[in-house]
Amino acid sequence: MAGKKSSAEKRYAQSEVRRLHNKAIKSEVRTYARQFVEAVQAKDEKLAKERLTTLVSKLDSARSKGVLTRNAVSRKKSRMAKLFNVSFAEAAAK
């Protein structure tokens, strides 16, 4: 019957579902970040560029869902772009 569950129990159940959902999104972002760093370390510019594009998309998606804050997303994107530019600047200069 409806009305049996207290509001506190319902709130707890909702927060648990949200926590697991947010955890999955954060894990996915970390996975894409790791793959990007591995591509940079392997000196594969084309693959790193593709993975950076995908990572930025995933970060923006996490921001729009409220999982990550605006500043956290900006910081991560900036650091990854800097890593890419520093790593492949020598190749472009040659």
Automatic annotation (TrEMBL):
One of its GO terms (cellular component) is small ribosomal subunit. The gene is rpsT. Keywords: Ribonucleoprotein, Ribosomal protein, RNA-binding, rRNA-binding. Coiled coil: none annotated. It comes from Treponema berlinense. It comes from the Bacteria. InterPro entries: Ribosomal_bS20 (IPR002583), Ribosomal_bS20_sf (IPR036510). This is Small ribosomal subunit protein bS20. GO terms for molecular function: small ribosomal subunit rRNA binding; structural constituent of ribosome. Binds directly to 16S ribosomal RNA. GO terms for biological process: translation. Belongs to the bacterial ribosomal protein bS20 family.
